[in-house]
Amino acid sequence: MLSVMCMVIRGVDRSIELLQGWRGYLITNERFAIALKGTKMLIAVAIFNLNSPGLLLAKGKATAQMQEPQEVSVADVNGDGKSNRRERKLIEIVKANRPALEPYEDLYKHLHSHPELSLQEIGTAATAAQHLHSLGGFDIHEHIGGQGLAGILKNGGGKTILLRADMDALPVEEKTGLPYASKVTMKDNDGITKPVMHACGHDMHVTCLLAAAELLHKAQKSWKGTLIVVFQPAEERGAGARAMVADGLYDKVPVPDIALGAHLMPYRAGAVGTKVGLMASAADSFKITLYGRGGHASQPHRTIDPVVMAAQVVVRLQTIVSREVGPDDAAVVTVGSVQAGMTENIIADKAEIKVNVRTINKQTRDRVLSSVRRIVNAECEASGAPQEPTFEPTSSFPFTMNDKEVTEPLEAVFAEAFEPYDRDIARLHGSEDFSILATSQNRPATFWVYGGVDPEKWDEAEKKGRVQEDIPINHSPFFAPVIQPTLRTGVDSYALAALRFLCDESHV
């Protein structure tokens, strides 16, 4: 049996040597397929089943998924050929209509160097609106829920699909050293001047969706239905989606059948990941004010020190996760800001702390939030505070749940189009308000991620076992994606996701 196998492999090796134009080949214990570049030929050779599931023989860079799958797809010989043809056709539509991306690379650099804080995305929204106007055919609505923007492209009967990108930046001083790094400062909603940076990739989101809008505009002969592109403000505050809905978004645009969104993450550039079910945690943030009695630093016995009170609160809050949340559950309680006093020789009369809570189910969410209040109130009482603390909610994000019936169709086309692709990507530790665009209308949605880390940098960090140490994460002052292949991956993922639901059988 083994000798027969070796003869077959030697024959294939000889064929590869003779046909240098072939993209790659795959040998498994059951079958392999060879795809020829520039032709539609598909050769399948059956190999005796050796009953060894782990057997994988590959030549060169051949892997379980073809290299550059956006250009070459290999049909599953024993699978649903019709399904595979559908996915390959969608990829062909994207390739044939993908716009030149060099102008979008310039647009990305412009957006990156001109970030705007939440609720102040005036220039970003204007740039997006101008670009949609230049394409023609889009019915454009501006200033929805602040700086929100929506464009509608109607193309006959069919499904209505919504694609969303967020626009706001963060109060972070950029330290990437890039030639197009941000040097912008802005006053925040409290009137405090702060440095501003696109440290979460929203500049890439906007750029990718604008390019995808042009792609889908060019590809109208290949699909039917209605496309809605939404550029949302204030995601970082958890307020933008809710504000757009409250301001009559769905009085201006049709209610979508499906809402689709994506986010740039610190994964290897070119990678894409989806997940059925819980995709992102809920988040609740508060500004808590603790009250004391101020006075001279030399006479603390005549005061009630809110700094000591705040310190006790910060330490005790850390016990919620370690002592009140089970090991089979998950939660995060972070104190991100502590502010009190103006100088060292004065004991302040109040302290402000800002707390962020992340949870993955409603029961734990309710319990953790209750514990935060219990601890804060108890520490204030123990310190003899002259008045009760105040709790001011600053943001709230829902759970992001990916609908199975929407996500699974994307799995098939993404598996054909992207390498690597993970259909069960790790749940996001962060939170999103995207799903409100769907849940407010009782519509299904899905949210996927794509990577932006330079492949060489990622591979080096992975080889050294230093991904966590060497790869900057979202909200880091060093976070910035490599422009390509990140941009192309984001554009293609938006377009393929929309086309998967806008293309009927007659188009594929």
Structure explained in plain terms:
The chain has 508 residues and is an alpha+beta fold. It has 15 helices and 23 strands. The strands form 7 sheets. Strands 6-7-11-8-12-23-13-22 form an 8-stranded mixed sheet, with helices on both faces. Strands 17-19-15-20 form a 4-stranded antiparallel sheet. The chain has a 3-stranded antiparallel sheet with strand order 1-3-4, with no helix packed on it. The longest helix has 21 residues, at 362-382. It is elongated and about 80 Å long. The model is unreliable at 1-80 (pLDDT under 50).
What is the global morphology? elongated
**Radius of gyration over all CA atoms, rounded:** 27 Å
Q: Can you summarize the main beta sheet?
A: 8 strands, mixed
Mean pLDDT score, rounded? Answer: 87
Quick overview of this protein structure:
The protein is α+β, with helices and mostly antiparallel strands and 508 residues long. Helices cover 35% and strands 25% of the residues.
Which features would summarize this protein structure in a list?
508 residues, alpha+beta, 23 strands, disordered N terminus, 4-stranded antiparallel beta sheet, 15 helices, 8-stranded mixed beta sheet
